[in-house]
TrEMBL record:
The record marks 166-167 as: Cleavage. Keywords: Autocatalytic cleavage, Hydrolase, Protease. Its EC number is 3.4.19.5, 3.5.1.1. This is Isoaspartyl peptidase/L-asparaginase. It is an enzyme of class 3 (hydrolase). GO terms for biological process: L-asparagine catabolic process via L-aspartate; proteolysis. The lineage of its organism: Eukaryota, Metazoa, Chordata, Craniata, Vertebrata. The active site is at 167 (nucleophile). It comes from Conger conger (Conger eel). Substrate binds at residues 195-198, 218-221. One of its GO terms (cellular component) is cytoplasm. Coiled coil: none annotated. GO terms for molecular function: asparaginase activity; beta-aspartyl-peptidase activity. Belongs to the Ntn-hydrolase family.
Length: 320
């Protein structure tokens, strides 16, 4: 049933105290993006709106709330892709802007390139009138502290590159059957300056093609890139697998070949969808028809009516 929107706020191990905040944020974002689809808006508008809200929410590792690189700076990656035309745009290692996915969309719409990086991406943002924000406005106390802990004698900065991976992403099918994806992230804690992650690389950190579907992943970027996870999932769907089967097969392959953990949200053009992960947790939410689905641990699929956010949720172990 069309339209559909599915979002994620990252995979990994989410501290118990923060779980409700993580879950609430993806539900708010999915409602806002889905409202656009219900009014006849495009899949592209819906995914960018959902991701923008998640970037602005300091809970997630994207926009405000991004993790810090080895020098204590925020460098963000993002991409968008439109399944109608295969048009896509990305930015990598971009600094001092609030909404990297919107800048990725401008790369798609206003340049002949698919990815701009670092200082070039910042110059392009300025030329497009995107306001520069102070780096401090993107940094939360939580990540500032984590970064400082890594400077302590005896700390192992490489070890702390693992941990919660709160990248954000969204996939949608609009009422005309067009699919789109958007992904945005601060990357991984203590990454080397200039490190480009999957979230800036089309085919890895996202893909959308009206003939097959759309994917947005989260997780170990190097492993995601090694298996080109998003395109791999769509390849399995082209071979006749459902969104769920294709996701599980590709995630298992990523583990086998690259010891990669992560998760994905996926849609197909008929309105089938999946939120799957091989890490301990992934925070996700989906909207379709009158229902909002959401979950955090494996096997969870809580359902609420979209109309009434306060009504009691029911748990249903049907897996998507
Ligand atoms: N948080 C994440 O999902 C990390 C992201 N995939 C990256 O490697 O940059």
């Amino acid at each position: 049933m069309l339209p559909v929107l599915v979002v994620h706020g990252g995979a990994g191990t989410i501290q118990k105290e923060l779980a409700e905040m993580y879950s609430e944020g993806v539900r708010v974002a999915v409602r806002a993006g889905f409202a656009i689809l219900q009014e006849g808006g495009s899949a592209m508008d819906a995914v960018v709106e959902a991701v923008t809200l998640l970037e602005n929410n300091p809970v997630y590792n994207a926009g405000c709330g991004s993790v810090l690189n080895e020098h204590g700076n925020v460098e963000m990656d993002a991409l968008v892709m439109d399944g109608r035309t295969l048009a896509n745009g990305a930015v990598s290692a971009v600094r001092r802007i609030a909404n990297a996915a919107q800048l990725a969309r401008l790369v798609m719409e206003k340049t002949r390139h698919v990815c701009l990086t670092g200082e070039g991406a910042s110059k392009f943002a300025r030329a497009m009138g995107v306001p520069e924000v102070p780096e401090e406005s993107l940094i939360t106390d939580r990540y500032r502290k984590r970064w400082e802990e890594n400077l302590a004698p005896g700390a192992n900065p490489v070890e702390s590159q693992t941990g919660p991976k709160g990248t954000v992403g969204a996939v949608a099918v609009d009422s005309e059957g067009n699919v789109a994806c958007a992904t945005s992230t601060g990357g991984i804690q203590n990454k080397m300056e200039g490190r480009v992650g999957d979230s800036a690389c089309v085919g890895s950190g996202g893909y959308a093609d009206n003939r097959v579907g759309a994917v947005s992943p989260t997780g170990d970027g190097e492993a995601i890139m090694t298996v080109t996870l998003s395109r791999l999932i769509l390849f399995h769907m082209e071979q006749g697998k459902s969104a769920q089967e294709a996701s599980d097969e590709a995630l298992a392959y990523m583990w086998e070949k690259a010891q990669g953990l992560g998760g994905v949200v996926v849609v197909d053009p008929r309105g089938g969808w999946a939120a799957r992960f091989n890490d301990t947790q992934m925070v996700w939410a989906a909207a379709q028809g009158q229902q909002l689905h959401y979950g955090l641990y494996r096997g969870e699929d809580f359902i609420q009516p979209l109309q009434d956010p306060d009504s009691a949720s029911t748990q249903d172990h049907h897996q998507h």
